[in-house]
Specification:
This protein is of the alpha/beta class and about 130 residues long. The protein has a three-stranded parallel β-sheet with strand order 1-2-3, sandwiched between helices. Strand 2, helix 3 and strand 3 form a beta-alpha-beta unit. Helix 2 crosses helix 3. The protein contains four helices and three strands. It has one domain: Toll/interleukin-1 receptor homology (TIR) domain (Rossmann fold). This is TIR domain-containing protein. InterPro entries: TIR_dom, Toll_tir_struct_dom_sf.
Length: about 130
């Protein structure tokens, strides 16, 4: 992005164009409107989401923990639905006191690559190439 770009337009179109989302959940993740908005877009678009729970357990993720953001009731419901979906998705766990960040990044990259291959293979099966020979 560059100065003058509309942030939400860029974020929304990038998520629309991608195939897989990786959400890195931290203890302060739910304090960020942008993080919650992006998560909701991934879940609503039914794209594959790979959660990484970094120094936080899925059960600890809640909208409205912080007074930093003011949300409308519809947004709270939307964000809660997205968080519930993420909580019930198998992800990667990382404890910064015990683990090596590069290990979890490598593991996440492997999962993303495997997932992209699965998505491509599924597309080929659903939309096989038809050759017409005269």
């Amino acid at each position: 992005m560059k100065p003058g770009d509309k942030l939400f337009e860029k974020i929304d179109s990038a998520i629309d164009e991608c195939k897989i989302g990786v959400a890195v959940f931290s203890p302060r993740y739910c304090d960020s409107y942008f993080c919650l908005h992006e998560l909701a877009l991934f879940v609503e678009s039914k794209k594959k989401l790979i959660p990484i729970f970094c120094d936080v357990k899925p059960s600890e993720l809640r909208v409205g923990k912080s007074n930093n953001i003011q949300l409308e009731p519809k947004e709270i419901e939307r964000f809660n639905l997205a968080l519930e979906e993420a909580k019930h998705t198998v992800g990667l766990d990382f404890d910064s006191n015990k683990g090596n960040w590069s290990d979890v990044v490598t593991k996440a990259a492997d999962v993303v690559i495997e997932s992209l291959i699965e998505i491509e293979e599924a597309q080929i099966i659903r939309n096989p190439i038809k050759l017409i020979i005269p």
